[in-house]
């Protein structure tokens, strides 16, 4: 009986050693959502740019929101398709966030002359825009 126990112990130890020597795979980090940035050109360069605008808008989202599947920055305001709109300004825009739940929100973002960006609380993004 002792040789069988020694064999089983040797097998268990070999399995433990094999598991300990193989690297553990960690779960991969979720992919960053795609970001779409308005490509309008301003002269002189704008005080508001895509990255800071999106960062400010994301900072005011409610805690525990659904995962984000896309983010978009546009200069100007929310304007219905085909409607006459005020020309975009280099210090104001909107950020649109789409969630995995299928819902979307938008927030207005502005930059002051020092480049400090602020965002309003998000509102539901109207369908058809």
Describe this structure in words.
This protein has a domain of 90 residues. Helix content is 23%, strand content 25%. Strands 1, 2, 3, 4, 5 and 6 form a 6-stranded mixed sheet that branches. The radius of gyration is 26 Å and the shape is globular. The chain starts with a helix and ends in a 5-residue tail after the last strand.
Secondary structure: elements and pairs:
Layout: H1 2-21, E1 35-37, H2 50-59, E2 68-75, E3 92-99, E4 104-111, E5 117-119, E6 123-124
Parallel strand pairs: 1-2
Antiparallel strand pairs: 2-3, 3-4, 4-5, 4-6
Number of contiguous helices: 2
Gap from first CA to last CA: 78 Å
* Basic shape: globular
Radius of gyration: 26 Å
How many distinct beta strands?
Answer: 6
* Helix amount: 10-25%
Written as H for each helix and E for each strand, in order along the chain, the element string is HEHEEEEE
Q: What proportion strand?
A: 15-25%
Structure classification: alpha+beta
Largest β sheet strand count, sense and barrel closure: 6 strands, mixed
Mean pLDDT: 82
Unreliable runs, pLDDT <50, ≥5 residues? 3-26
């Amino acid at each position: 009986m002792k040789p069988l126990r020694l064999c089983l112990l040797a097998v268990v130890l070999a399995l433990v050693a094999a598991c300990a020597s193989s690297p553990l795979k960690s779960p991969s980090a979720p992919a960053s959502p795609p970001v779409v940035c308005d490509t309008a050109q301003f002269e002189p360069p704008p005080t508001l740019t895509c990255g800071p605008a999106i960062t400010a808008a994301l900072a005011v989202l409610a805690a525990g929101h659904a995962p984000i599947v896309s983010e978009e920055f546009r200069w100007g305001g929310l304007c219905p398709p085909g409607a006459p709109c005020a020309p975009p300004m280099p210090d104001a825009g909107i950020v649109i966030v789409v969630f995995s739940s299928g819902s979307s929100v938008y927030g207005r973002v502005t930059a002051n002359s020092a480049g400090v960006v602020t965002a309003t609380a998000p509102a539901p993004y109207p369908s058809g825009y």
